[in-house]
Structure formats: structure tokens, C-alpha cells
Amino acid sequence: MYKLRAGIAGFVTLLILTPGVVLAKNYCIGGFGNPDFVFVGIGFKVPAKGKCTPWTGFVALGANLQTAGVGCTSSDGSNLSLTLTTGDQPQGWAEIDAISLSLPSQTGEDSGQYIASSSVSSYLDTGIVGAACSTNTIPAVTQGGAAPDRKGSQ
Amino acid sequence: MYKLRAGIAGFVTLLILTPSVVLAKNYCISGFPNPSYILVGIGFTVPGKAKCKPWAGFNVEGNYPTAGMGCTSSDGSNLSLTLTSGNQVGGWVEIDVLSLSLPSQTGDEAGQVLQSSAVDSFSATGISGGACTTKTIPAVTEEGAAAARPGNR
Question: A154 lies in a domain?
């Protein structure tokens, strides 16, 4: 009985001491022309008014597409803007997304620049939505999995 | 008298424990062909020799987040930065590759503006960097977006 109590006490203590693990949340942005193209910012939270927070994450698509950038909340708190750069090595493209989300709704638009084959293609997506999420699986890059990958605009 | 001393001691302790608040400074880069295009790196300071620091900040023209990196050469003569900014409403992205001589913190830039499915490359001289206290991030508005331009115009 004593050991059981000690074990429970130890587990509860562990939970208390590691809230970052227990409550870990990421931030997802979806609603792109390609519905499978969802940005996942690891541990990202909407910055406070007049603050910027670095974004490191990935795209929850069929390959390990890493994304880096920054998100800033305007000083009046009405808007969250993000500039995110994503690369797909197997498919040979990079994409830079300029996203603007109204606050507190966290909905808005994206102006994307898709760069591949020595050219750039600009596009606009509406209906972009951001929210906390628990997505945390980073897909591996495989030759088979890489083929279906698409940019955010399609 | 005791309370006064305790109060002063407490205030001094507060100052010591919160230097980031008291001494908070950002780093601004200006001198672009568009004089309103000023990049603000929040909390950024010139890295030591052979060091690099991430840049996270914004553009004073609007809430256009800027992300990138700055590195000081091992001989301490040069600070180079690669910074990417995005303007959602304006529909453009700009990649600024900057080289500033040290300790003057002045130099040149090679910029790439991506907009309307085209790339516009430009170069600029007279770029200067320095510590600044600019910290207000403008909101994105249709009016503000219309006026905001890339660094090259």
C-alpha cells in the first residue's frame, strides 16, 4: 500500500513538474488551396500585443517539410501576421507565405510565393484559419511519399 | 529611514533582476530606396566575432514580420544578414541580403522582391544599422497596406 501511494505521489509530482510535456500544444494554420497543406508551429502561441515569436515547425503533408519564420501581433492586438518559409527538397520547391490573421478570430488570408524551376508563382488564398492543435507527427521523407506533395496553392 | 532604505534596496534589486526590461533595445536597419522601409529586429544586437544570431522582427510600414539571421565575420569587420519579410495584403515577399561594415554599421544590400509571379532584383547602397527603441508594430489595414511598399520603391 505504501509503495502504491509513493508511486502515485511520484507520478503526480512528475505531472506537476513537467507541464510543458503534459500540456504541450502546437499551432496549426490551414485552409489553403491544398487542404492537406497545414502548417504546424511547434510550441507556437499567438504573441502578446506588440510582440513577435519565432516559428519553427513543419507541414503536415507527406514529407518532412520544415518551416521557419516569425509571427507578430500588432501593438493594438487586432492582427497576427506571419512570414513563413518552407522547403521541399525531394520536389525541389520553396514557398514563402505571408499570412495575415484577424484577432481574436484567427482567420484571414495568405499571399504565397511558390518558387520552383527557376520561376516564381504568386497566389492568394482566403479562408485561412489558425488555432492551437496537438498535431506533432513529422512525416519522414520517402521517395514514394514525396511524389504526392503539393504546394499550399494546389 | 529604515523603510526608505528598504525601498531603495528593493528598487535597485528590481533593476538588477530585470535588465532586459530596463535596457530593452531593438536593432533598426534603414536607408533603402523606399525610405519608409525600416526593418526592426526585436532584441537583436550585433553578434560577437564569428557568431550568428536569429532575427525576429517587423517592418515599421506595417505588421510585416521579418525573419532571418545575422552573422559577424570572424575578423569582426562585417555583419551580414539575410532577412525575409512578407506583406500579405500587398501580396509581396522581399528577401534582403545585407552587408554592413563594422564598426560603422553601414553598407549595401541585394534585394529580391517576389510579386505577381515575378522576381525583381535590386541593389542599394547607403544602408545603415543601429540600436533603436522602435517597438510599435502597426496593425494591418487596407489603407496602410496600400501605402506600404517593398524596399526597392
Answer: no
**Which helix (H) or strand (E) is B75 found in, with range?**
none
Q: What's the number of domains chain A is made of? A: 1
Closest CA in chain A for residue B41: A52
Is B134 part of the contact surface with chain A (CB cutoff 8 Å)? Answer: no
Dihedral sign (CA B22, B40, B88, B70): negative
List all residues 6 or more positions away from B47 whose beta carbon is below 8 Å from its beta carbon.
B53, B70, B71, B72, B79
Position A14 in a domain: no
In a domain, A12, yes or no: no
ipTM associated with this complex: 0.77
Q: State whether residue B69 sits within 8 Å of chain A by CB.
A: no
Q: Which residues of chain B have pLDDT under 70?
A: 1-24, 141-149, 152-153
Structural domain range at position A59 = 24-140
- Residue A125 included in any domain: yes
| Segment A81-133, tens digit of pLDDT | 999 999 988 888 999 999 999 999 999 999 999 999 999 999 999 999 999 99
Chain A environment of B86 (Cβ under 8 Å): 81-84, 96-99, 111
